[in-house]
Every structure is written in C-alpha cells, then in structure tokens.
Amino acid sequence: MIMDAFAPKLQQLLHRIAKAIDRRQSPVQSAVTLIAVSKTQSSQSVSELASLGQIDFGENYVQEGIAKVQALKPSFPHLVWHMIGPLQSNKTRLVAQHFDWVHTIDRLKIAQRLSEQRPSTSKPLQVLIQVNIDDETSKSGVHPSQLLALALSIKDLPSIELRGLMCIPAQGSVQAFAQMAHLFQLLNAHQLALDVLSMGMSHDFEAAIEHGASHVRVGSALFGPRVSSQID
Ligand SMILES: *Cc1c(COP(=O)(O)O)cnc(C)c1O
Q1: How, if at all, do strands 101-105 and 80-83 pair?
Q2: 220 C-beta closer than 6 A to ligand 1
Q3: Which of 34, 52, 82, 120 is deepest in the core (most CB within 10 A)?
Q4: What is the pTM of this model?
Q5: For ligand 1, atom 6: residue with the closest CA
Q6: Contact 31, 55 (CB under 8 A)
C-alpha cells in the first residue's frame, strides 16, 4: 500500500479508539495502545506506518516477526514488538532475544524458559497470560479456573514482568470482555498489580475498549484483508 493510503486509515482508527474511550462507563485506564498486527504484511508497510508515528507492532510467527524486527531496527530503533501468536517451547529463545512483549503465556514452562533465555542486557520481557475465556477446545490459553495459580507462579520469575491478560474471544462473544475485566480485578485483588488488558481486534475493538481494554490488536482494519493464501 502506498504511504498516503495508511495515513487516513490510521487517523480513522485512532479516532474510533478515542470515541470508544469516551463511551466507557468508568474510565478503568485512560489510555489505549494500538498494536498494529503486521503478520503477513511487508517490512515496507511496517516502515510506512512507523513513519506515521505508529510504535507498537504485533506478529504471530516467530521467524517472520524477527525478520521484520531486524529490517526495521536501523531506521526505527524505538519500535515495540509484541509476539501475539501461540508459542512453542523450541521457539522461546528467539522470542526472548528479539521481542519486547509476549501475549500468549499459557503455562509455567514457557514463562520459565523465556525468563531463563532473556538476555541479561535487555530489560525484562513484558508478558501477558492468555485466557481461554470462552473455554473453546480449539483455542490456546489457560482456563479461568487455573489463572490465579499460574499468575502467582510466574510473577516472581526474574527476567520477565507479568503485566496482564490477553484473550481472543469466540466470534460474537461480547460477554467475554466483561468476564476478562472481572478476572483482571480479581487478580489485582491478590496484589498482582496488573495494568494491561489486551483484547479487541478489527471487528470488536470498540466493545473491548468499552470494557476496559488497554491494548487492542488491529490488523485488517489497518492493512486491509490479509492475502488468503497465507496462514492466519
Ligand atoms: C491476526 C490477529 C489479530 C488481528 O486480527 P484482525 O481481525 O485482522 O484485526 C489480533 N490478535 C491476534 C492474536 C491475531 O492472531
């Protein structure tokens, strides 16, 4: 896409985010971070968005993401990279070395490996626990009943910092956002001091914000539809 095409899309998205924040019943967090989900998009597209001031980018696939991190680093060293795809244990080292955030922690072992493999010269990896909020067998994420135990077991790992929760609700599941907000409060009642709720995608980010999302992950509303031959 040419640069001129991104500017109005980004502006419109930021405007819709601001409007959704205004509609919140009680302002849980005031700011919302837009994560531009750049999976399957070119480094060139990322670079154009970065030139417009976009800072946070989300990637689903480890190798593809690292290629972009490295391509963009010389011109845009301040970008913040989020791993938002499922993470297998044989990929944790690469993620610990190249990403700033991981949204998809769903078991202790992955968190331990990321903490051990985080380079000592980097600041702690910022992590979120993915919650399987609609209890779908096809989805990754921890079951809500096991969330507190997992959060307590990873909060003291030295080189990662537990910041909050992430979910990918079932299509059309609006109550999932309210349930996430409830779990978030519940964990904070246990002194976990979480400040990040990553929820909402192109089709539902406004509802997510109304329920207290602090980070929304938006791909197609910004980049247009993904090429169908590529895996989603
Ligand atoms: C692809 C993806 C998104 C963005 O989806 P869109 O519908 O294109 O906005 C957000 N979160 C995760 C985890 C994804 O895999």
Answers
A1: parallel
A2: yes
A3: 82
A4: 0.95
A5: 219
A6: no
